[in-house]
Amino acid sequence: MAIHELEVLDVTGHTTNKWDTADKAEMEIVQRLFSDLTKKGYKAFSVTKDRGDNVIHSEPRGTFDPEAEKMLLVPPIQAG
Q1: Which residue range forms the structural domain that includes residue 15?
Q2: Alpha carbon distances (Å) from 66 to 6, 14, 53, 55, 77
Q3: Residue 80 gets which letter from DSSP?
Q4: Any domain includes 63
Q5: Nearest to 40 by CA among 71, 74, 17
Q6: What strands lie across the sheet with 56-61, from one edge to the other?
Q7: Is residue 80 a part of any domain in this protein?
Q8: CB neighbourhood size of 4 (10 A)
């Protein structure tokens, strides 16, 4: 059992949504959230921590990856 995380940055700071790939209903809820927010302009990134050098790596994502250790959704930037 591996628990995966989707963090969403928002006006309150951030919210964390977790899923287990063995729980299809749980995964579908998070996948729907990912889809809804990316349609609104949120940018998605997969985030991994290199076990060897303790460096955090991120990579832009265009689609939901149920196997990602952690994903981050960042709201669209608004010019003032």
Answers
A1: 3-74
A2: 10, 20, 25, 22, 26
A3: -
A4: yes
A5: 74
A6: 13-20, 3-10, 70-74, 43-49, 56-61
A7: no
A8: 19
How many helices (DSSP H) and strands (DSSP E) are in the chain?
1, 5
**63, 66, 75, 79, 80 from 71: Cα distances, Å:** 11, 9, 13, 25, 28
The first and second tokens of residue 26, run together, are 């749980």
Q: Supply the pTM of this predicted model.
A: 0.86
Q: Is residue 28 part of a domain?
A: yes
pLDDT band at residue 1 under the 50/70/90 scheme: low
| Percent of the chain whose pLDDT exceeds 70 | 95
Question: How far is residue 61's CA from residue 70's CA, in Å, rounded to a whole number?
Answer: 12
Q: Which residues pair with 5 in a beta bridge?
A: 18, 70
Is the dihedral angle over the CA atoms 25, 50, 72, 15 positive or is it negative? positive
